[in-house]
Design goal:
Blueprint: E1 11-13, E2 18-20, H1 50-53, E3 68-72, E4 97-101, E5 104-113, H2 114-119, H3 124-147, E6 177-180, E7 188-190, H4 191-203, E8 212-216, H5 218-226, H6 232-235, H7 241-244, E9 249-250, E10 253-257, E11 273-280, E12 284-297, E13 303-316, E14 322-329
Parallel strand pairs: 6-7, 6-14, 8-10
Antiparallel strand pairs: 1-2, 3-4, 5-13, 8-11, 9-10, 11-14, 12-13
């Protein structure tokens, strides 16, 4: 914005000897140039959780889109009754094979014109590559979290979850759990209770307790901070989660929040509904690799092209180690 000027034709001098001043054109003609800051406005990115909730055991084995990684699983040994003098039945254990397809890819392709590069006081290519890396993580996280929908075992989701009890209500689309912080009334469910239900569903499948996780929408995390866990003596922390701002662990789960969690019609559920995922890193495998990152001269104009290709694949290798709830704001 140019510095404000007096109206054109302003009168100076005295009333007896007035004179009119010509318009000030120094700014318009560039003799008083604009100054551009060398600092950029900080950009904020959505937090990603994929690296924390999945295993990447097979990431080093991929090279290009279209690769297939064959994962061998442990066989299950059958235990039989024994009686004296009986013949023993022989087993030849053989595990199954799961194919992890690296069949997805994301790319970016940018160009910096030479004239812009010379005149800019910023390292534009470096800035663009940093932003591309963050956008790549967000895009892939969003795609995988959406693809995880309904991949949990049938008894780890829905209104009759629980492989043993069949009575755990984890909500479903059109009948979500209306989550509240505390003191639920009829038709409402305390947010901590929802987490406990997810834990029970995994318990009934004998999922290991160490390494469990839950991914919540950010508004649900706020409910946890408003719940009874805000009291230090209930959360087991030296200071309450309301003071230190860390959600930490609830019922053996490490809690993560994300604005990328699937919700509404874009996720194939009703508007106002949100998915909550819980599980163990053993259940979801993810492999990704930036296979191409290159800069080259443009053939069509004078400029430098910077482009990158990242290939990835994911698979729920053990649906019993993943649980899903459907919630809404209560």
């Amino acid at each position: 914005m140019a510095y404000p000027l007096a109206p054109t034709g302003s009168t100076l001098g005295t009333s007896a000897y007035p004179f009119t001043v010509a318009a000030n054109t120094l700014q318009a003609t560039g003799f008083i140039p604009e100054i551009w800051s060398g600092k950029l406005v900080e950009k904020f990115y959505a937090s990603t959780v994929l690296a924390a909730i999945s295993n990447t055991d097979y990431e080093g084995e991929i090279k290009n889109q279209g690769d297939k990684v064959r994962i061998r699983t442990k066989p299950t040994i059958t235990i039989a009754d024994y009686a004296a003098d009986q013949s023993l039945l022989l087993q030849r254990p053989s595990g199954s094979v799961i194919d992890l397809l690296i069949d997805k890819g994301k790319y970016f392709n940018t160009i910096l014109d030479d004239v812009m590069d010379v005149q800019s006081d910023l390292n534009l290519l470096s800035m663009w590559s940093d932003d591309a890396a963050e956008q790549m993580k967000i895009t892939i996280d969003t795609a995988v979290l959406l693809g995880l929908k309904d991949q949990a075992a049938a008894k780890n989701r829905g209104a009759t979850a629980g492989i043993i009890t069949n009575v755990i209500n984890l909500g479903a689309t059109t009948t979500p759990l209306a989550a509240v912080a505390r003191s639920p009334t009829t038709g409402k469910t305390e947010i901590v209770d929802i987490i406990l239900r997810l834990g029970q569903a995994l318990d009934e499948y004998n999922v290991p307790e160490t390494g469990r996780w839950v991914v919540l929408p950010t508004w649900a995390a706020t409910l946890i901070k408003m719940s009874e866990l805000r009291e230090a003596y209930l959360s087991g922390d030296a200071t309450s989660i309301l003071r230190n701002g860390r959600i930490g662990m609830v019922d053996r789960f490490t809690l993560y929040t994300s604005n990328l969690i699937p919700s509404g019609t874009a996720a194939g559920i009703v508007a106002g509904e949100y998915l909550v995922y819980a599980g163990h890193a053993h259940g979801l495998t993810f492999a990704s690799q930036m296979t191409k990152m290159e800069t080259l001269r443009s053939e069509q104009t004078f400029g430098t092209v910077m482009r990158g290709l990242q290939v990835y694949g994911y698979k729920v290798v053990d649906p019993t180690a993943i649980a899903q709830a459907v919630i809404s704001v209560g």
